[in-house]
Specification:
By secondary structure, this protein is an all-alpha fold. The protein has 17 helices and no strands.
């Protein structure tokens, strides 16, 4: 029950951040066409800073921790690949409609950084290692996003190139962090404070953008499309069990296993919308899924953490 209450409070707090964004657009203080500019700042500034902050926050990288991080990275990628593949087998006959191509990506892409980091910090307040697990998950998701997911949305194989897996904000930020990862060196305090502040802006910025987007969509298109509820249910209440099955019986510490489940249960990722906007296809469908998933995460995340606690207690 402790996990349930902690998660409920954390998610509800995050959703409050969306209110100013919603009001700003409704009051015409921010134009809808300007929202994409906020998304650029989130993706190219705040997100990389969150990576640097998370890596720098780990007190010490032991051999055991590095092994767990690498293992977590590959298991998270395997879980996402399985979900993407299963969804593709089910949806491929409808791929002429971009809506179903966006659905395919949304089944496995979750808000593992912008919501995952503060959520894990709330659940495991005394364990700074959980932040690097979220970054590890995010790195794998971005590799898929800039390659396979982009190819799925556009139906263009030109995106499946090795260099695209490396030349993206998340991967570049992680490469820059390698000296922190493999040595005991840490950023000077004043420099670290800059990355900490910019990184922690990620969650409020993400939710502000969600609020802005919510102010631009029609309630009917958001809440009256049954297929969107199915995708949100699959992403937030089925996909976590795939991640859990892949890691549960391996020799990882319990907090690592719990983190995998929680990150897989994160709501549909805002990067689904970011990619749709950059690629110029399926923007409305992506926006609806991200908004619907975020709204329902106030119920799905606490329920899934409650189920996790029950499974962990039984084990």
């Amino acid at each position: 029950m402790e996990f349930f209450i902690t998660t409920l409070i954390a998610v509800a707090t995050m959703l409050v951040y969306a209110v100013p964004g919603f009001i700003s657009v409704k009051a015409k203080l921010i134009k809808p066409e300007s929202i994409s500019s906020f998304a650029v700042i989130l993706m190219y500034v705040c997100s990389p800073c969150l990576t640097v902050y998370s890596v720098n926050a780990v007190p010490e990288y032991t051999k055991e921790l590095i092994i767990q991080i690498i293992g977590f990275f590959f298991i998270s990628m395997a879980a996402q690949a399985i979900m993407l593949g299963l969804a593709f087998l089910i949806l491929r006959k409808k791929y002429d409609d971009v809506k179903y191509r966006v659905y395919n990506v949304a089944t496995s892409f979750g808000n593992c950084a912008f919501m995952g980091v503060p959520l894990l910090q709330a659940i495991f307040p005394d364990n700074p290692n959980v932040t690097i697990l979220s970054v590890s998950y995010l790195l794998g998701m971005n590799i898929f996003g800039w390659t396979i997911a982009s190819a799925m949305i556009t139906r263009d194989k030109k995106y499946i190139k090795p260099w695209k897996a490396i030349v993206n904000p998340a991967a570049i930020a992680m490469i820059i962090c390698l000296p922190l990862f493999f040595t005991t060196w840490r950023l000077p305090e004043k420099v670290a404070d800059i990355f900490t502040l910019m990184g922690k802006m990620s969650t409020p910025m993400c939710m502000l953008i969600m609020g802005m987007r919510l102010a631009t969509v029609k309630p009917k298109s958001l809440f009256c499309t049954p297929s969107q509820y199915v995708i949100v249910f699959v992403k937030q209440m089925i996909f976590p069990f795939i991640g859990m099955l892949l890691i549960w019986f391996l020799p990882f510490e319990q907090y690592v296993k719990y983190s995998m489940f929680i990150l897989c249960a994160a709501p549909v990722a805002s990067v689904v919308l970011n990619f749709a906007e950059m690629l110029g296809e399926g923007q409305e469908n992506a926006a609806n899924l991200v908004l619907l998933g975020t709204v329902f995460s106030v119920a799905t995340l606490p329920v899934m953490t409650l189920i996790l606690q029950a499974i962990g207690g039984a084990a």
